[in-house]
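Entry:
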Amino acid sequence: MTGQQLMITAGAIPSALDAGTDHSAGGTGGVMDFFECHALREKHELEKWGDLDRCPTAMESLEYWRGNEYEERRLFVARLGQETVGTCSVTLPLRENTSTAGIMVDVAAAFRRRGWGRRLLEHAEAVAADSAALPWMRTVSCPPGRWRTRPG
């Protein structure tokens, strides 16, 4: 790992895709954070599958991240300086199985194998624990042939 400080912040979900270009959650809704997260997802899907057939569009992602009456969805962006390292998310059921949480971590290819994914996972687990939920599902996906297992 480098000497830089990894900053993990809540990703604001914009009110609309054309809500502006500011990084803040106020006023414009942080649409640039949202687009960075979506672009990382698209890169991951292209790397893994070779196409975007399984990847939601930006509008579909926006609708998903708004949540609904059954699930609260929290999105986080990790950065080293101005570079986006990855994202993590926590899905919290609101009506059934409320003591559980779904966690997803995605690390940009250039930052993998440096411990940043572990830091994102720890952050997401802490968010789930603060909500009195236990992670029930962790999603980890790697391109074919790149999965490494640890001995023992």
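The first strand starts at residue 6 and ends at 10.
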